[in-house]
Amino acid sequence: MTPMTMPTEQAGRIDGGRFNKWLHAPEPQGWFQSSAQQFHQGWLKFRLHPLGLAGLAIIVLLILVALSAPLLTAYDPIVQDMAGRLSPPSAEHWLGTDNFGRDVFARIVYGARTTLYIIILVSVIVAPMGLLIGTCSGYFGGIVDEVLMRITDIFLSFPGLVLALGFAAALGPGITNAIIAISLTAWPPIARLARAETLSLRKADFIAAVRLQGATPATIITRHILPMCIPSVIVRVTLNMAGIIITAAGLGFLGLGAQPPRPEWGAMAATGREFMLDSPWVIAAPGIAIALVSLAFNLVGDALRDVLDPRGSQ
Amino acid sequence: MANADLVSKRNSDTTFSEEEVAYVAPHPLAIILRRLAGRVVAIVTTLLGLLFLTFSMGRLLPADPVLAITGPEVSKEVYDRVYNELGLGQPILVQFLSYVGRVATGDLGTSATTGQPILTDLLAIFPATIELAVIAMIVGALVGVPLGITAAVRRGTVIDHVARIVALAGHSIPIFWTGLMALFVFYAKLQLVGASGRVDVFYEGLVTPVTGFLLIDSAVEGQWDVFQSALGHIILPGAILGYYSVAYISRMSRSFMLEQLSQEYIVTARAKGLGRRKVVWRHAFRNIRVQLLTIMALTFGGLLEGAVLIETVFGWPGLGQYLTRGLQMNDMNVVMGAVLTIGAVFLTINILSDVLYRILDPRTR
Amino acid sequence: MLRNLLATAAMASALIVAQPSLAASPPNMLVIGTNLTGIRTLDPAQNNARTVSELISNLYDNLVQLSPDDLKTLKPMLATKWSVSDDGKVISLTLREDAVFQSGNPVTAEDAAWSIQRVIKMGQVGSTDIALWGFTPDNVEKLVRAKDERTLEIELPRPVNTDLVLYSLAGSSIGIVDKKTVLSHEANGDLGGAWLSANSAGSGPFALAQWRPNDVAIFNAQKAYWGGAPAMARVVARHIPESGNLRLQLEAGDVDVGQYLASGDLDALSTNKEMVIDNVPGLGFYYIALNQKDPDLQKPKVREAFQHAFDWKAISGNIMRYTGFPWQSMIPRGMMGAPDEAASRYDYDPAKAKQLLAEAGYPNGLKKVLNPSGAATLPFAEALQASARVAGLDLDLVPGEFTPAFRERKYEVLLGNSGARLPDPFAVATQYAYNPDNSDEARLGSYYLWRAGMKVDELNTLVDQSMKERDSGKRTEIFKKMDSVYSGMDAPLVIFFQRTDPYVMRSAVKGYHAHTTWSTRWHDVTKE
Question: What is the reported pTM?
Answer without folding.
Answer: 0.80
